[in-house]
Predict the structure.
Amino acid sequence: MVTSIDAAFNSLQQNIGTEIGVSGWIMIDQPLIDSFGTITQDRQFIHNDPDRALIEAPFGGTIAHGFLILSLASRFAYDTFPEQPGQTMSMNYGFDKIRFLTPVRCGSQVRGRFVTTGVTRKSHTQLLNRSTLSVEIKNGVKPALIAEWLTLAVFDDPALTAP
């Protein structure tokens, strides 16, 4: 009997190296940058002082915190990751590699692009998914960041649902 976790594992294995999907665009405006700076207590002028950043920073104004852009990974995933039959939840498992390649200027739009790079069975109810996340900047030449993201998909326990 093929369980839902078996079907998901086989499907993910067959799709290694292919694109999962692309999220919608998100506007990175000054109120969002300011809110993130307040929450994280990172009030560096390149993020939260548009007048000073225009004069002293090489970006032509304020830029988003790198961690703000990274934190949008969850939102990007909601837009793109398909829920597998029998899956009860998905959890952030961490990152193996994160590179911040291009600053995201205030007023820019970003989106996430995911490619499946691996899947491992952790247990009879858990799959560890590995994907590459590339955060694109609308009309940009290079991505804002590239990361190797690990997510844990949890499935129904077949032993508990068997008749």
The two ends are 13 Å apart (CA to CA). The chain has a mean pLDDT of 93. The first strand starts at residue 19 and ends at 22.
